[in-house]
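tokens incoming
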């Protein structure tokens, strides 16, 4: 399986950044590197569910 990258866009600064899927799964918080805007717990939970699904499918 090839590596999965997660691309996120900050709603505050409209800044796009990428993280490795495994890095996302290991984090308890994710924040924009430019403005420190945090992804909500619910959003992070949903992203992790999607990553785990993609890892099982591929």
């Amino acid at each position: 399986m090839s590596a999965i990258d997660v691309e996120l866009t900050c709603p505050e600064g409209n800044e796009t950044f990428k993280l490795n899927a495994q890095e996302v799964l290991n984090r308890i918080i994710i924040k924009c590197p430019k403005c420190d805007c945090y992804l909500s717990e619910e959003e992070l939970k949903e992203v992790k569910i999607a990553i785990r699904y993609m890892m099982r499918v591929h």
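note: Residues 41-57 form the longest helix (17 residues).
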